[in-house]
């Protein structure tokens, strides 16, 4: 067995928040003979071995609800979703995404929090009680890039985009990743940076 297959077998039966878990894999492939191209999408995610409404709701959140679109060109998309317990009530979902669809491969991590007591994903309003959080976060982001410009001579902070991801309504899903220092934002730097 390849090492990743052995790891998946070892993870099967792991207990997270009282639920026995297993890894599910959803593969899609499109072969376009006219373009001599293959496009592959592999989506790995965690599911819980629980048929109650709670288990079904959690599995729907951890899985992929939509069918992926397979372009006619060549490329690969890889999604690997992990779940961990970060408090008595919260499960952290992290999806690591790798895209190889052009000259430059890219990767990112998307996060979310599922509340066991609410039996649903958390929203911004469940975490932050006022809009002040976005102003504080925007200041911290701007300070980060100002410091970066002082040490990286070729970095131009005026090229930074993506601050709109901070300004979300309270009804939006809480989609930030946790670190030891708090919550983390990514995706601001343009490709050339």
Write a concise keyword list for the protein shown above:
seven-stranded mixed beta sheet, 193 residues, 4 helices, alpha+beta
Biggest sheet layout: 7 strands, mixed
Strand/helix succession? HEEEHEEEEHHEE
The percent range for helix content is: 10-25%
Which strand order does the major sheet show?
Answer: 1-2-3-4-5-6-7
End-to-end CA span: 39 Å
Which structural class best describes the helix and strand composition?
A: alpha+beta
Beta-strand portion reads: 35-45%
Specify Rg, calculated over alpha carbons.
Answer: 19 Å
Shape summary: flat
- The tally of strands reads 9
Mean pLDDT: 85
Low-pLDDT segments, ≥5 res = none
Number of helices: 4
Describe the structure.
The chain is an alpha+beta fold and 193 residues long. Helix content is 22%, strand content 35%. It has helices at 3-11, 53-62, 124-127, 132-151; strands at 15-16, 19-32, 37-48, 75-85, 90-100, 106-115, 120-121, 177-179, 182-184. The strands form two sheets. It has a seven-stranded mixed sheet with strand order 1-2-3-4-5-6-7. The termini are far apart.
Summarize the structure.
By secondary structure, the chain is an alpha+beta fold.
SSE diagram, text form:
Elements: H1 3-11, E1 15-16, E2 19-32, E3 37-48, H2 53-62, E4 75-85, E5 90-100, E6 106-115, E7 120-121, H3 124-127, H4 132-151, E8 177-179, E9 182-184
Parallel strand pairs: 3-4
Antiparallel strand pairs: 1-2, 2-3, 4-5, 5-6, 6-7, 8-9
